[in-house]
Design goal:
This protein is mainly β. Helices cover 12% and strands 33% of the residues.
């Protein structure tokens, strides 16, 4: 009984927090555990219908080291999560643009960044990070991101593609393919 009450209360809390932060969200959204948010005033964040966000280690038996979901939309960034998306205990940091289309699953402890955060050049890092690279990330309809993956800036993952657990994706993945590894590489085509 207490467990069910906890999930109900965190769902109410998260939706209230979405409103406070100006996040547009659809119907039938379910959240499990507290979602940590860092949303700048000039940014945009939209969550569409039927999304499930698991943000507590008890809400997903796959577990993992990261206990909550963290969403950060900074500056004039734009983050959109499509319909019927499932996200478990992951971090999404948007500085420019991230689009997660409908029916995407994102496994535990995965990370999606559309920015490098810092310049690769020491003099620019030490003088205010004047050369930070940011490029959009698009995860297309029906893709599945396995647990513990890292998706880096400028990447597009094709429709219905699968990214194997623990992969680091640094370049575009075509539709209907399995990619895995560090860096992720083509494994095989998915036969429908």
């Amino acid at each position: 009984m207490l467990g069910k009450l906890f999930w109900i209360m965190t769902n109410i809390y998260n939706k209230s927090n979405f409103k406070i932060h100006g996040i547009k969200f659809g119907k039938q959204i379910k959240t499990y555990g507290i979602i940590r948010l860092k949303i700048d005033d000039d940014s945009e964040f939209k969550i569409n219908d039927g999304v499930i966000i698991r943000s507590h280690w008890k809400s997903n038996p796959a577990g993992g080291g990261q206990k909550d979901c963290i969403f950060a939309v900074r500056g004039k960034g734009s983050l959109e999560i499509g319909k019927n998306v499932g996200i478990s205990n992951s971090t999404i940091y948007c500085n420019r643009k991230i689009v997660i289309e409908d029916d995407v699953y994102i496994g535990v402890n995965s990370i999606i960044y559309d920015t490098d955060f810092h310049s690769i050049y020491a003099d620019k890092r030490l003088n205010g990070n004047t050369d930070i690279k940011s490029m959009p990330v698009i995860i297309k309809r029906g893709a599945w991101i396995g647990g513990h993956c890292i998706i880096l800036k400028g990447v597009s993952i094709g429709e219905q593609s699968v990214i194997g657990a623990g992969s680091v994706v640094t370049k575009d993945v075509p539709p209907d393919e399995v990619w895995a590894g560090n860096p992720a590489r083509f494994i095989k085509k998915i036969n429908q």
